[in-house]
Protein backbone atom coordinates (compact mmCIF):
# COMPACT_ATOMS: atom_id res chain seq x y z
CA UNK A 1 0.00 0.00 0.00
CA UNK A 2 1.23 3.47 -0.89
CA UNK A 3 2.20 5.85 1.86
CA UNK A 4 0.65 9.31 1.77
CA UNK A 5 2.05 12.38 3.49
CA UNK A 6 0.68 15.91 3.67
CA UNK A 7 2.98 18.92 3.63
CA UNK A 8 1.84 22.48 4.38
CA UNK A 9 4.75 24.83 3.63
CA UNK A 10 4.23 28.50 4.52
CA UNK A 11 6.06 30.98 2.29
CA UNK A 12 6.50 34.66 3.17
CA UNK A 13 4.80 36.11 0.10
CA UNK A 14 1.10 36.90 -0.11
CA UNK A 15 0.91 39.91 -2.41
CA UNK A 16 2.84 39.28 -5.61
CA UNK A 17 0.76 36.67 -7.44
CA UNK A 18 3.42 36.11 -10.12
CA UNK A 19 5.98 35.19 -7.46
CA UNK A 20 3.48 32.93 -5.75
CA UNK A 21 2.76 31.09 -9.00
CA UNK A 22 6.49 30.49 -9.51
CA UNK A 23 6.85 29.19 -5.96
CA UNK A 24 3.98 26.69 -6.29
CA UNK A 25 4.95 25.59 -9.81
CA UNK A 26 7.18 22.72 -8.54
CA UNK A 27 4.06 21.09 -7.09
CA UNK A 28 2.27 20.98 -10.46
CA UNK A 29 2.40 18.13 -12.93
CA UNK A 30 4.56 15.89 -10.76
CA UNK A 31 3.87 12.18 -10.48
CA UNK A 32 3.07 11.24 -6.91
CA UNK A 33 2.30 14.83 -5.85
CA UNK A 34 -1.04 16.67 -5.74
CA UNK A 35 -1.28 20.42 -5.19
CA UNK A 36 -4.47 20.57 -3.13
CA UNK A 37 -4.71 24.21 -2.19
CA UNK A 38 -2.81 27.46 -1.77
CA UNK A 39 -4.12 30.56 -0.04
CA UNK A 40 -2.26 33.88 -0.24
CA UNK A 41 -3.07 36.56 2.31
CA UNK A 42 -2.16 40.19 1.62
CA UNK A 43 -2.33 41.34 5.23
CA UNK A 44 -0.26 38.40 6.50
CA UNK A 45 1.94 38.66 3.37
CA UNK A 46 2.10 34.89 3.39
CA UNK A 47 0.88 31.95 1.34
CA UNK A 48 -0.08 28.61 2.86
CA UNK A 49 0.33 25.71 0.43
CA UNK A 50 -1.15 22.24 0.91
CA UNK A 51 0.19 19.24 -0.96
CA UNK A 52 -0.43 15.50 -0.70
CA UNK A 53 1.49 12.60 -2.11
CA UNK A 54 4.07 9.89 -1.80
CA UNK A 55 6.86 10.82 0.61
CA UNK A 56 9.80 10.84 -1.82
CA UNK A 57 7.90 12.72 -4.52
CA UNK A 58 6.64 15.31 -2.02
CA UNK A 59 10.15 15.69 -0.61
CA UNK A 60 11.64 16.51 -4.03
CA UNK A 61 8.88 18.99 -4.88
CA UNK A 62 9.15 20.74 -1.50
CA UNK A 63 12.93 21.12 -1.80
CA UNK A 64 12.50 22.56 -5.30
CA UNK A 65 9.82 25.01 -4.17
CA UNK A 66 12.01 26.19 -1.29
CA UNK A 67 14.74 26.86 -3.82
CA UNK A 68 12.39 29.06 -5.84
CA UNK A 69 11.24 30.90 -2.70
CA UNK A 70 14.86 31.50 -1.75
CA UNK A 71 15.43 33.24 -5.10
CA UNK A 72 12.11 35.12 -5.16
CA UNK A 73 11.69 36.41 -1.59
CA UNK A 74 13.90 39.01 0.05
CA UNK A 75 13.17 39.04 3.78
CA UNK A 76 15.00 42.33 4.27
CA UNK A 77 12.08 43.96 2.42
CA UNK A 78 9.28 41.83 3.88
CA UNK A 79 6.49 43.25 6.02
CA UNK A 80 3.28 41.61 7.16
CA UNK A 81 0.97 40.91 10.08
CA UNK A 82 2.09 37.30 10.59
CA UNK A 83 5.18 36.31 12.55
CA UNK A 84 7.94 35.02 10.26
CA UNK A 85 11.65 34.28 10.25
CA UNK A 86 12.30 33.10 6.70
CA UNK A 87 11.25 33.08 3.07
CA UNK A 88 10.25 29.44 3.51
CA UNK A 89 9.08 30.05 7.04
CA UNK A 90 7.78 26.70 8.24
CA UNK A 91 7.51 23.29 6.56
CA UNK A 92 5.43 20.71 8.46
CA UNK A 93 4.92 17.09 7.38
CA UNK A 94 1.76 15.26 8.49
CA UNK A 95 1.30 11.48 8.12
CA UNK A 96 -1.99 10.75 6.34
CA UNK A 97 -2.12 7.13 5.17
CA UNK A 98 0.01 4.03 5.83
CA UNK A 99 2.61 6.25 7.47
CA UNK A 100 3.69 6.79 11.07
CA UNK A 101 4.71 9.96 12.85
CA UNK A 102 8.21 8.51 13.17
CA UNK A 103 8.42 8.15 9.40
CA UNK A 104 7.25 11.75 8.99
CA UNK A 105 9.98 12.83 11.41
CA UNK A 106 12.63 11.06 9.34
CA UNK A 107 11.27 12.68 6.18
CA UNK A 108 11.42 16.12 7.81
CA UNK A 109 15.06 15.55 8.77
CA UNK A 110 15.94 14.53 5.21
CA UNK A 111 14.34 17.71 3.85
CA UNK A 112 16.00 19.89 6.50
CA UNK A 113 19.41 18.45 5.68
CA UNK A 114 18.96 18.85 1.93
CA UNK A 115 17.76 22.46 1.96
CA UNK A 116 20.53 23.46 4.37
CA UNK A 117 23.17 21.93 2.11
CA UNK A 118 21.68 23.02 -1.19
CA UNK A 119 20.62 26.57 -0.31
CA UNK A 120 22.82 27.37 2.72
CA UNK A 121 19.76 28.00 4.90
CA UNK A 122 19.92 27.35 8.67
CA UNK A 123 17.12 25.01 9.74
CA UNK A 124 15.48 24.33 13.09
CA UNK A 125 13.61 21.07 13.68
CA UNK A 126 10.35 21.59 15.59
CA UNK A 127 7.24 19.79 16.94
CA UNK A 128 7.70 15.99 16.83
CA UNK A 129 11.06 16.43 15.07
CA UNK A 130 12.50 18.74 17.74
CA UNK A 131 15.89 17.84 19.17
CA UNK A 132 15.22 19.62 22.49
CA UNK A 133 12.00 20.37 24.40
CA UNK A 134 12.59 24.12 23.88
CA UNK A 135 12.29 23.66 20.14
CA UNK A 136 8.96 21.83 20.08
CA UNK A 137 6.89 25.02 20.10
CA UNK A 138 7.14 26.91 16.79
CA UNK A 139 6.41 30.22 18.51
CA UNK A 140 9.49 29.76 20.70
CA UNK A 141 11.65 28.87 17.71
CA UNK A 142 10.37 31.85 15.72
CA UNK A 143 10.70 34.34 18.61
CA UNK A 144 12.71 37.33 17.46
CA UNK A 145 11.51 36.88 13.88
CA UNK A 146 13.74 37.56 10.88
CA UNK A 147 15.07 40.82 12.29
CA UNK A 148 16.26 39.16 15.52
CA UNK A 149 17.51 35.84 14.15
CA UNK A 150 21.08 36.93 13.46
CA UNK A 151 21.58 37.74 17.13
CA UNK A 152 19.60 34.70 18.31
CA UNK A 153 21.80 32.30 16.36
CA UNK A 154 24.85 33.56 18.26
CA UNK A 155 23.44 31.89 21.39
CA UNK A 156 24.91 28.34 21.67
CA UNK A 157 21.48 27.14 22.82
CA UNK A 158 20.02 28.20 19.48
CA UNK A 159 22.50 26.68 17.11
CA UNK A 160 20.52 25.41 14.07
CA UNK A 161 19.96 21.67 13.72
CA UNK A 162 21.20 21.88 10.13
CA UNK A 163 23.10 24.46 8.15
CA UNK A 164 25.26 27.45 9.04
CA UNK A 165 25.18 29.33 12.32
CA UNK A 166 24.33 32.56 10.51
CA UNK A 167 21.09 33.52 8.76
CA UNK A 168 20.75 33.42 5.01
CA UNK A 169 21.04 37.13 4.09
CA UNK A 170 17.73 37.27 2.22
CA UNK A 171 15.96 33.96 2.99
CA UNK A 172 16.50 33.96 6.74
CA UNK A 173 15.81 30.75 8.69
CA UNK A 174 13.43 27.84 8.13
CA UNK A 175 11.65 25.51 10.57
CA UNK A 176 10.95 21.94 9.42
CA UNK A 177 9.10 19.32 11.41
CA UNK A 178 6.48 16.62 11.70
CA UNK A 179 3.15 16.96 13.45
CA UNK A 180 -0.36 15.61 13.60
CA UNK A 181 -3.18 17.40 11.72
CA UNK A 182 -4.16 20.78 13.15
CA UNK A 183 -6.88 23.28 12.35
CA UNK A 184 -5.71 26.76 11.34
CA UNK A 185 -8.71 28.84 12.36
CA UNK A 186 -9.27 32.62 12.46
CA UNK A 187 -12.18 34.54 13.98
CA UNK A 188 -13.01 38.04 12.71
CA UNK A 189 -14.02 40.78 15.13
CA UNK A 190 -16.03 43.84 14.07
CA UNK A 191 -13.55 46.38 15.41
CA UNK A 192 -10.20 47.92 14.51
CA UNK A 193 -9.02 47.79 18.13
CA UNK A 194 -6.15 45.30 18.15
CA UNK A 195 -5.98 45.39 21.95
CA UNK A 196 -9.36 43.68 22.18
CA UNK A 197 -8.16 40.86 19.92
CA UNK A 198 -4.98 40.60 22.01
CA UNK A 199 -6.97 40.28 25.23
CA UNK A 200 -9.23 37.59 23.76
CA UNK A 201 -6.27 35.66 22.33
CA UNK A 202 -4.60 35.76 25.73
CA UNK A 203 -7.77 34.42 27.38
CA UNK A 204 -8.06 31.37 25.12
CA UNK A 205 -4.47 30.27 24.46
CA UNK A 206 -2.87 27.54 26.51
CA UNK A 207 0.26 29.51 27.42
CA UNK A 208 -1.92 31.94 29.42
CA UNK A 209 -4.20 29.36 31.01
CA UNK A 210 -6.71 28.89 28.18
CA UNK A 211 -7.53 25.83 26.10
CA UNK A 212 -4.87 23.12 26.24
CA UNK A 213 -4.56 22.67 22.48
CA UNK A 214 -4.97 26.27 21.36
CA UNK A 215 -2.28 28.68 20.20
CA UNK A 216 -3.65 32.16 19.56
CA UNK A 217 -2.63 35.68 18.64
CA UNK A 218 -4.07 38.91 17.27
CA UNK A 219 -3.77 40.34 13.78
CA UNK A 220 -4.91 43.60 12.20
CA UNK A 221 -6.75 43.50 8.85
CA UNK A 222 -6.69 47.20 7.88
CA UNK A 223 -8.18 46.76 4.40
CA UNK A 224 -11.26 45.12 5.89
CA UNK A 225 -11.32 47.38 8.97
CA UNK A 226 -11.41 44.41 11.33
CA UNK A 227 -9.04 42.48 13.58
CA UNK A 228 -8.62 38.74 13.87
CA UNK A 229 -8.04 36.27 16.63
CA UNK A 230 -5.80 33.84 14.75
CA UNK A 231 -5.38 30.29 16.05
CA UNK A 232 -3.85 26.90 15.59
CA UNK A 233 -5.91 24.15 17.22
CA UNK A 234 -3.28 21.45 17.60
CA UNK A 235 -5.69 18.69 18.68
CA UNK A 236 -9.22 19.39 17.46
CA UNK A 237 -10.53 16.25 19.21
CA UNK A 238 -9.72 17.81 22.60
CA UNK A 239 -10.09 21.54 21.80
CA UNK A 240 -12.96 21.73 19.33
CA UNK A 241 -13.70 24.51 16.86
CA UNK A 242 -17.17 25.22 18.23
CA UNK A 243 -15.91 25.50 21.82
CA UNK A 244 -13.29 28.08 20.85
CA UNK A 245 -15.77 29.97 18.65
CA UNK A 246 -18.35 30.24 21.43
CA UNK A 247 -15.73 31.35 23.94
CA UNK A 248 -14.44 34.08 21.62
CA UNK A 249 -18.05 35.30 21.11
CA UNK A 250 -18.52 35.38 24.86
CA UNK A 251 -15.28 37.28 25.47
CA UNK A 252 -15.97 39.73 22.63
CA UNK A 253 -19.34 40.56 24.19
CA UNK A 254 -17.49 41.97 27.22
CA UNK A 255 -16.10 44.70 24.97
CA UNK A 256 -19.28 45.31 22.98
CA UNK A 257 -17.67 43.83 19.87
CA UNK A 258 -19.43 41.45 17.44
CA UNK A 259 -17.94 38.36 15.80
CA UNK A 260 -18.45 39.02 12.08
CA UNK A 261 -17.13 35.77 10.63
CA UNK A 262 -14.44 33.14 10.74
CA UNK A 263 -12.25 31.22 8.33
CA UNK A 264 -10.30 28.00 8.05
CA UNK A 265 -6.90 28.18 6.39
CA UNK A 266 -5.85 25.14 4.39
CA UNK A 267 -7.58 21.79 4.84
CA UNK A 268 -9.62 20.65 7.83
CA UNK A 269 -10.43 17.08 8.92
CA UNK A 270 -14.07 16.22 8.25
CA UNK A 271 -14.40 14.94 11.81
CA UNK A 272 -13.76 18.47 13.13
CA UNK A 273 -16.71 19.82 11.10
CA UNK A 274 -18.95 16.89 12.03
CA UNK A 275 -18.22 17.77 15.65
CA UNK A 276 -19.44 21.33 15.03
CA UNK A 277 -22.57 20.18 13.18
CA UNK A 278 -23.43 17.82 16.02
CA UNK A 279 -23.11 20.64 18.57
CA UNK A 280 -25.01 23.37 16.74
CA UNK A 281 -27.82 21.13 15.50
CA UNK A 282 -28.15 19.27 18.79
CA UNK A 283 -27.77 15.94 17.00
CA UNK A 284 -28.01 12.91 19.24
CA UNK A 285 -25.70 9.97 18.60
CA UNK A 286 -24.27 11.58 15.47
CA UNK A 287 -20.88 10.44 14.21
CA UNK A 288 -18.71 10.11 11.11
CA UNK A 289 -20.50 6.84 10.33
CA UNK A 290 -23.56 8.88 9.29
CA UNK A 291 -21.65 11.04 6.80
CA UNK A 292 -22.26 9.90 3.21
CA UNK A 293 -18.83 10.87 1.92
CA UNK A 294 -17.17 8.98 4.75
CA UNK A 295 -18.85 5.75 3.61
CA UNK A 296 -17.80 6.35 0.00
CA UNK A 297 -14.15 6.72 1.00
CA UNK A 298 -13.96 3.30 2.65
UniProtKB/TrEMBL annotation:
GO cellular component terms listed in the entry, alphabetical order: cytoplasm
The Formiminotransferase C-terminal subdomain domain, residue ranges: 181-295
GO process annotations (BP): L-histidine catabolic process to glutamate and formamide; L-histidine catabolic process to glutamate and formate
Enzyme's top EC category: transferase
Pathway: Amino-acid degradation; L-histidine degradation into L-glutamate; L-glutamate from N-formimidoyl-L-glutamate (transferase route): step 1/1
Occurrences of domain Formiminotransferase N-terminal subdomain (ranges): 3-180
EC number: 2.1.2.5
Superkingdom of source: Bacteria
PANTHER family named in the record: FORMIMINOTRANSFERASE-CYCLODEAMINASE (PTHR12234:SF8)
Any one Gene Ontology molecular-function term assigned to this protein's record: folic acid binding
Chief localization: cytoplasm
Classification via InterPro entries: Formiminotransferase_C (IPR013802), Formiminotransferase_C_sf (IPR037070), Formiminotransferase_cat (IPR004227), Formiminotransferase_N (IPR012886), Formiminotransferase_N_sf (IPR037064), FormiminoTrfase_cat_dom_sf (IPR022384), FTCD (IPR051623)
Protein name: glutamate formimidoyltransferase
Keyword field contains Cytoplasm: yes
NCBIfam families: FtcD
Keyword Transferase included in the entry's annotation: yes
Lineage: Bacteria, Bacillati, Bacillota, Clostridia, Peptostreptococcales
Subcellular location(s) of the protein: Cytoplasm
Keywords linked to the UniProt accession: Cytoplasm, Folate-binding, Histidine metabolism, Transferase
